Amino acid sequence: MSTPVYADTLPAGKHWSLLVRRNTLLRLTDVDGGGNAAMLFYNPINLLERYNAPDTLKCQHTFKLTTGHHLYSDMGRVFCRIVRDTFGWHDTICGNTTKASVAAKWGATSYQTHRNDWQQNGHDSFLVEAAKYGLQRRDLVSNVNWFSKVAVDDSGVLAFDARAAMPGAVVELAFEMDTLVLMHTCPHPLNPAASYPRAPIAFELYENAETALPIGERPENTRGRENNRLYHLSGCC
Q1: Strand, helix or coil for residue 83
Q2: H helices of the chain, where?
């Protein structure tokens, strides 16, 4: 693969946002293992169009996200698809930590007393990034939690699998349309760690990355990409 056009590392418990252009590949790496990279996706031309976790799961008949899966908007279009995944199981149903849940699990902190070591939460991190684009609390939806495995038992109880942590795990996303990406590296809400997890996530952006379509994929994904094609034919972007 070519040299990335941009690369950086987001420390644990931080947040950021960026506009990822169509035909760009975003590579995420869980540097030390045990990290969580939470993401939300929006159409920058129409911010009312955003990531839809239920449709993403039900149209692909899956509970987890991994290689070959497409991430859908609520308009039936594909924001991006997973073209490489060495972790194998990513969560998109458990959402975020909150200020209250972080305080209850790991103790209350604040920037005024702890400076850059304060323990941020996922909900407020998304709100800070969302506000930069005129988005509000009502615009937050269920997010993806990359590098976090959550399984469900026969009785329906969800359980975080800390044993799945894998230093150097990689997931690569090929973007099918221009996408506003909000992200944070706050802990997964079900993480049972005794202390606030501090695992950084590295990311790289590659332009014009050629990625093959999966063999034998579900017909729903073919229709999703056809929706993208019609969208781009209309001259929207």
Answers
A1: strand
A2: 53-58, 99-106, 111-114, 122-131, 219-233
- The pair phi, psi for residue 51, each rounded to 5°, is -60, 140
DSSP β-bridge partners for residue 145: 38, 91
Q: What is the number of other CB atoms lying within 10 angstroms of the CB of residue 56?
A: 22
Domain spans of the chain?
Answer: 6-233
Q: Find all residues with CB under 8 Å of 111, minimum gap 6, and list them.
A: 118
CA distance 230 to 213: 18
Asked whether the beta carbons of 1 and 209 are under 8 A apart, the reply is yes
Q: State the Cα–Cα distance between residues 34 and 51, nearest whole angstrom.
A: 25
**What pLDDT tens digit does each residue of the chain (237 aa) get?**
689 999 999 999 999 999 999 999 999 999 999 999 999 999 999 999 999 999 999 999 999 999 999 999 999 999 999 999 999 999 999 999 999 999 999 999 999 999 989 999 999 999 999 999 999 999 999 999 999 999 998 898 999 999 999 999 999 999 999 999 999 999 999 999 999 999 999 999 999 876 777 766 788 899 999 999 999 998 776
Global confidence as pTM: 0.95
